[in-house]
Amino acid sequence: MVSPSLIIVFALTLYPLFYSIYLSTRSYDLTALWKDAFIGFENYSHALNEDAYLAEALLATFKFAAGSLLVQIPLGLGIALLLNREFRGRRLVRTIITLPLVAAPIAIGLVWKYMYDMKFGIIPYFFQVVFGSSPHWLADSTMALVSIIIYDSWQWTPFVALILVAGLQGLPQEPFESATIYGASAVQRFRYLTLPMIRPLLVIVALLRLIDLLKLWDPVWALTRGGPGIATQVVSWYLYRIGFLYLWVGYTASIALMFLYLIIILSVIALRRIARL
Amino acid sequence: MSTMTSSKNSPTSLVKKALIYLAVALILIATLTPLVWMVATSIKPEPDILVTPPRFLFTPTLDHYWFALAAPEAPLVRGLYNSLIISLATIALVVPISALAAYGFARYNLGGGHLQFYILTVKMFPPIAAIIPFFVIFQNLNLLDNVIALIILNTLFNLPFAIWLLYGFFKEIPADLEESAMIEGSTRFEVFREIVLPLVAPGLAVTAIFSILFTWNEFLFAFILTRSQAVTLTVAVSGFWTHRGILWGPLSAAATVCVIPMFIFALIIQRYIVRGLTFGAIK
Within a domain: residue B6? Predict the structure, then answer.
């Protein structure tokens, strides 16, 4: 019963994987096919030692992932604590915040590009009205990364919030009741009860978000296409550029494989923790 | 007790309440603004779109929708048709295959959980890394710009997730139920068809909807593997970023067409959203 799916998954992942490994050991370049030859680990050593663009891309990816997690985890936790309270319209709020999660990133990303537009967008307009001036959202190299972080947080903070609400609602009530009787303040209860109890879930949510953040591609296409300059050229965008615009297939395969291993390691850590839940 | 918990209408509890509703209002405004702006732009006349400052009052029009449907640079109708075909073919493959696999995993503990584990890492593969070998393979098979290539990739990427999600649903069915039916003389397959499948029907529906959702929203594979014949809806939407600039009105119309059906699905599977997004780990 299991075998059809196993055959499909194995055949469709292992063959391309080995093919990737094969490609990564060759100087395969679609713009210079006559050069195609076996070169061993040369692609890897070039990527790790000499590729300054890759180093920049790693740095951009790190900044983007760290910035997004710093926004999404605390904000998501805050929203979860709010949604864990009784108030009128709670169910409706929960429903509404699921909407960003199911919207196609490319479609909604392009809508955000319009909102960030310095001439016609409502975000610069809002900043003009409220603060008297607006940063150059997508044109400034620092702000471009911030713009993607804001967009990504709009779309994915609800994911963090909804998972944490589910976690909060599954917590036992007794410790909180006795803490209240013994006079613990709300801050103390959060610090010494809620936080330790949902820490495993927080770690899982952060890991799942991290894996997704490292893979980010659609919003980069929609918002900045790696620019200005290479300010938002994250690793996945760099791979696209060297693989599909420059057509350095062999070299791209070597970086893609290393990137894949990194994500598999993170996935295994995340899945182990999920399985223990 | 009265010293610790304030009574219902005391000033502090009123302030608290006001703060809660203020926070809720901020969340709703932040969440809905881009969506409202998308729909508003899609029905805003062209002269009202390209103005500074942005215009909030205008006479609605459906012109952008008509334009978007006819625009040659962004074949929206073909995209809709292909996305529908690819989504349906993907669930037609994913749901039965994953149901059998998940049932097997749930009842026989195959590979002690390791196989399942290996399978789910596929879902985590960065698409841009996966597409490089697939691009060369599909090129050799002459499957570029062909919906079959996208059906294969979407099936591959949705199977692991579907197996895990369904595994949880199968685990919820008590094994005794099946054992007693088998004692009465039914075969394993009859038990699966007559007892297990009806019980797991909601799980199958949720799995199907999630698979449609991921397939429908998928952009990277479709963008790289298609040119004109096999373009999906997301590729058609991106086509409104033309050489002459971005056509904001028709783009918003196309984005609305792309996003609204998924909103309807989200409302249907609301109860299962968290479960689906965590591969069934959190219910």
Answer: no
Cα B197 to Cα B84: distance, rounded to the nearest angstrom:
26
pLDDT of residue B111: 63
- A128 token code pair: 């003009």
Q: Which residue has the tokens 């980069």?
A: A220
pLDDT digits (tens, 9 = 90+) for A109-128: 999 999 999 989 999 999 99
Q: Per the confidence metrics, is the pTM higher than 0.95?
A: no
Domain with B56 in it:
11-61
Shared domain check, B47 and B161: no
ipTM: 0.91
- Chain A residues within 8 A of B134 when measuring between CB atoms: 16
User: For residue B80, what are its two tokens?
Assistant: 């809709």
| Spatial contact of A253 and A20, defined as CB atoms under 8 Å apart | yes
SS3 content of chain B, % helix, strand, coil (to 5): 75, 0, 25
Q: Are B104 and B27 members of one domain? A: no
Structural domains in chain A, CATH included, are 38-256 (1.10.3720.10)
> Is the Cβ pair B277, A20 closer than 8 Å?
no
Burial B140-171 (b: 16+ CB within 10 A, else e): eeebbebbebbbbbbbbbbbbbbbbbbbbbbe
Upper half-sphere CA count for residue B80 (Cβ side, 13 Å): 14
Buried b vs exposed e over B114-124: b needs ≥16 C-beta within 10 Å?
ebbbbbbbbbb
Both structure tokens of B146: 């062909």
Shared-domain flag, residues B71 and B138: yes
What are the pLDDT digits (tens) for B197-214?
Answer: 889 999 999 999 999 999
Residues 36-75 of A with CB under 8 A from B: none
A214 with B126: Cβ contact below 8 A:
yes
